[in-house]
Input
Amino acid sequence: MTDLKKYTVAASGKMRKVAYDKLNSDVNLLAWQHSGRMPAEQFDEWLSKADALYSAANIKIDENLLNKAPRLKVIAQAAVGYDNIDVAACTARGIVVGHTPGVLDDAVADLAYGLIIDSARHLVRGSEHVHSGRWGEHKGLGLGCDLARKTLGIIGMGNIGSAIVPRARASKMRIIYHNRHRRADDGKLGAEYAGFEVLLEQADFIVITATLNPSTKGMFDAEAFKRMKKTAAIINVGRGAIVDTDALYDALATGEIAYAAFDVTDPEPLPGDHKLLTLDNITVTPHMASATVETRDAMALLTVENILAGLMDLPLPVQVPDQWVNA
Ligand code: GLV
Output
């Protein structure tokens, strides 16, 4: 039995209590559980001793950070996305990297579906009207549109995209999707494959669930918005940089598209005085698609399992796909 107490695990931010309690009893845990941000010097000092890092998607894990952490053998991120991590640099140093796909699919699909409904029915803007004493002016919002018989285009039909399908089918939507590769099970899934341009032209609502990588970065540019219907809405729960923010602003401001509802933005956090927020045809939520008690606990516990496996030189329950497998 490996004596895990000899290992030091540093956390990049505040941890869920379930994860803190488990790791704190098993290893030497260095975690900032106070309110407010951890001082950078504190984190650097912890990194210098850490055998494992419990990370979140809001820190950049690059050569600079890795140079401060010469002992690291495992990085486990409490997120499905890991575009903040230089996986090749980790691989070159023999550091195994884990993440948390699967456990957040329903929570993210719920939020995406909520944003689809908001785009159609102006829930957030309606509520803002009432909050600001403008109930009687609600007609200024204009009428919404039915989801039934509209076409939803999903960009990235992975676990989260697939979880959106039954929700949208409950609203009687037709569903098309675009992936790098057509899925063999799409008939069973209830979604039709479409080329990117066909999807842009046919969809009334487009939801992005794709990961950020060189082929999706900036995928939604001025050209893409021009191809979309003027009545279409775009929803993003993937990563902000899949959309060119300036092109999005122009498309919304000039009526090239009708609405946007984004849980992820570029930059992030989006400053309160950002030009996107001067528009009244966008809803922005603060990257909170997986933010439920059950899902954040499940992500935290899977992150702990990844860390403990990595420290014991066992295969991680979930290692990032583009890294060697530590069998
Ligand atoms: C959240 O964005 C995640 O990648 O889990």
Q: What stands out?
A: Residues 293-311 form the longest helix (19 residues).
